[in-house]
Specification:
alpha+beta, 5-stranded mixed β-sheet, 40% helix
Length: 425
């Protein structure tokens, strides 16, 4: 193959790579030889520095099987935060987060290069409309990611908004022009674009006249999981309980929320397993007024098993898509607690976040000056748009639009291939 370019969707939860060569149509690459078009954005660093890191499903399997090492997920969420210039301990040494992300991007490039059998230097990388709600970090994040891509072996690097990329993937299926509203709810962000799509537009390099508005907000699937975890799971680990009051002058105090909120977020879990936190959690346990529950929190720290809790949260969220009630068995905790969960409770836990996503989506319509009733095609992409409650809320925004869920989990990756084709020929 000659003149090959990649489109890389480096996602919070999953990632995808597409390639395009010469005048061919972009194609998605099966990653990790698993016959899927996406790979979980996960890395497992074995404790021995003589062993190579594992990626995707292999990383998840190593962690679940209890291999000794460091498991990391949702590393994209450090983009747009002050963690971009921070480090963490990997294989008993300090490693910058930029190096960790580079290792993952290198792996994507390695697998893709093996597939196309050349060393590809051109890439279009997806980015959220906003990496951060803080403008200082929002502008720095793309530069940070561009430097990582160069260090990973790319030379010609361009970026495209993820909802625009998703629109390009859907445009390849259209036979007539449509006014489309793209709602992309990924793992870390929700992004919105209003764009004119059609068969006569898809080969245009400059689409600025077709793109009517872009907005975004830093709320995504991880935030949905966190809200569900805090409301429905963490009370079984001692949240909202108290400690103290057991001596003559001791005050009764609420247990700190910090531990529960940080352990409920994929990107922060690894940083919680340190000596100071474990010491403090054990100290509170000795004064706990709900020791049977708080003991479970101590075990999460001692076993470094909060990832298993978050896996259970995610699994429960998926099961509640088509069931009204379920029982989640936490068999990685010594006393095997069982938590009864309902769809109504789940929807209540995420209502505040989804309401904010709705407001931002409507803000995009306002920026475009478009009446919601004029939208002809509503493109829903990203894993969280699979949630019935989320689907219902998003569909109500554009009541007259046809709904498209084509390639929901990999449309951004495929669309970035179309973007690469336009920019690199």
């Amino acid at each position: 193959m000659k003149n090959v370019s990649y489109g890389i969707d480096f996602g919070t939860t999953n990632s995808a790579v597409s390639f395009v060569s010469n005048s061919h149509t972009p194609e998605l690459i099966s990653l990790n030889k698993n016959q899927h078009n996406t790979i979980p954005t996960t890395i497992f660093f074995p404790s021995k520095n003589t062993q190579s890191p594992l990626f995707g499903d292999q990383a998840i399997d190593a962690y679940i099987l209890g291999d000794d090492g460091r498991f990391m997920r949702s590393i994209k969420r450090i983009l747009g935060t002050d963690l971009m210039n921070s480090s963490t301990i990997i294989q008993y040494s300090s490693m910058d987060f930029s190096e960790i992300i580079k290792i993952f991007i290198e792996e994507l490039k390695k697998q893709a290069d093996e597939y196309v059998k050349i060393d590809v230097k051109n890439v279009s990388i997806g980015r959220p409309v906003r990496f951060s709600d803080d403008d200082r970090y929002n502008h720095k994040a793309q530069d940070f990611m561009e430097k990582i891509a160069k260090n990973a072996g790319f030379e010609n690097i361009t970026f495209q908004y993820e909802p625009i990329a998703a629109a390009y993937a859907h445009e390849s299926q259209l036979t007539e022009e449509k006014l489309a509203f793209v709602i992309d709810i990924g793992g870390g962000t929700s992004d919105f674009s209003i764009i004119r799509l059609g068969p006569n537009n898809k080969n245009k390099v400059d689409r600025s006249d077709d793109i009517l508005a872009n907005t975004g907000v830093c709320i995504g699937g991880n935030d949905i999981d966190k809200a569900f975890c805090i409301k429905s799971f963490m009370p079984e680990f001692g949240s909202k309980t108290t400690y103290g009051g057991q001596g003559a002058y001791d005050k009764i105090l609420p247990v700190p929320n910090l531990y529960f909120h940080s352990l409920a977020e994929w990107s922060k879990v690894n940083m919680m397993y340190n000596y100071n936190n474990i010491t403090q959690v054990k100290k509170i346990f000795n004064q706990s007024n709900a020791p049977e529950k708080y003991r479970r929190l101590v075990q999460l720290f001692e076993d470094e098993s909060a990832h298993l809790l978050l896996n259970a949260v995610e699994k429960s969220k998926i099961e509640l898509s088509d069931k009204e009630e379920i029982a989640a068995m936490l068999d990685f905790i010594d006393d095997n607690p069982e938590i009864l969960l309902s769809k109504k409770e789940f929807e209540s836990s995420i209502a505040k976040d989804i309401s904010y996503v709705e407001r931002k989506a409507k803000e995009c319509l306002g920026l475009a000056g478009i009446d919601a009733n004029k939208i002809e095609l509503l493109i829903l992409t990203g894993g969280s748009t699979e949630i019935p409650y989320v689907q219902e809320k998003m569909k109500k925004i554009c009541p007259n639009a046809l709904i498209s869920g084509y390639n929901k989990l990999s449309s951004v990756g495929l669309g970035l291939g179309f973007d690469a084709k336009k920019k690199f020929g």
